[in-house]
């Protein structure tokens, strides 16, 4: 049985905001500064989820992130998308986490083609375990390094942390290190 207040509407609003960002991006595909990206990563479960996992940054499998973004200026933008944090397994069962996110992005070009970036935003995740399911909102932060291969394509290495507010009566702190490609329009 899910924990938390079912009348709390912010978790329901986040997927709507991400959908709106995606729809805006699709209708303005030729707009300056619009980009899409995808990454695969190694998730880290810093806590046990519903009694599953030892909480020692354990994980199995591969995580991913798919996103669409819009540069608002040379140094600032917004991104929204989907994430999966893979699976954690132990003798108690298995747990996986998937969800949506919306981030503000700050970038600084420190050398030609090279940018350091930071992200901060909100996420909403669904936890599926062999002992039950739940969902929770999260604060999300990230940091990364990006290299522009050409004017439209870049490679990004990023670390993301998700601090969930209430999943199974706990506050899981999960993360992922990912490597991906970003393509601009």
Summarize the structure in words:
This protein has an eight-stranded antiparallel beta barrel with strand order 1-2-3-4-5-6-7-8. A hairpin with a 2-residue loop joins β4 (93-111) and β5. Mean pLDDT is 84; it is low at 1-9. It contains one helix and eight strands. Helix content is 10%, strand content 61%. The chain is elongated, with a radius of gyration of 17 Å. The protein has one helix at residues 10-27, and strands at 34-45, 63-71, 76-90, 93-111, 114-129, 132-148, 153-164, 173-184. It has 185 residues and is mostly beta strands. The relative contact order is 0.22.
Largest sheet: 8 strands, antiparallel, barrel
| Mean pLDDT over all positions | 84
User: What ranges have pLDDT less than 50 throughout 5 or more consecutive residues?
Assistant: 1-9
Question: Count of DSSP E strands?
Answer: 8
What distinguishing features does this structure have?
185 residues; mainly beta; eight-stranded antiparallel beta barrel; elongated; disordered N terminus
Question: Which secondary structure elements does this structure contain, and how are they paired or packed?
Answer:
Elements: H1 10-27, E1 34-45, E2 63-71, E3 76-90, E4 93-111, E5 114-129, E6 132-148, E7 153-164, E8 173-184
Antiparallel strand pairs: 1-2, 1-8, 2-3, 3-4, 4-5, 5-6, 6-7, 7-8
């Amino acid at each position: 049985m899910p924990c938390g207040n079912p009348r709390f509407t912010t978790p329901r609003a986040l997927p709507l905001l991400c959908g709106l960002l995606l729809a805006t991006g699709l209708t303005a595909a030729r707009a300056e500064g619009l980009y899409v990206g995808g990454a695969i990563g190694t998730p880290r479960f810093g806590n046990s989820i519903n009694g599953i996992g030892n909480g020692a940054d354990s994980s199995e499998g591969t995580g991913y992130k798919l996103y669409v973004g819009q540069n608002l200026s040379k140094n600032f933008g917004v991104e929204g998308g989907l994430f999966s944090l893979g699976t954690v397994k132990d003798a108690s069962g298995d747990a996986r986490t998937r969800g949506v996110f919306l981030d503000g992005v700050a970038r600084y070009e420190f050398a030609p083609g090279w940018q350091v970036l930071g992200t901060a935003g909100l996420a909403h995740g669904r936890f599926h375990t062999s002992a039950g399911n739940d969902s929770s909102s999260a604060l999300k932060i990230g940091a990364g390094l990006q290299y522009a291969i050409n004017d439209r394509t870049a490679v990004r290495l990023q670390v993301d942390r998700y601090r969930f507010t209430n999943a199974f009566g706990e506050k899981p702190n999960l993360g992922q290190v990912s490597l991906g490609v970003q393509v601009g329009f």
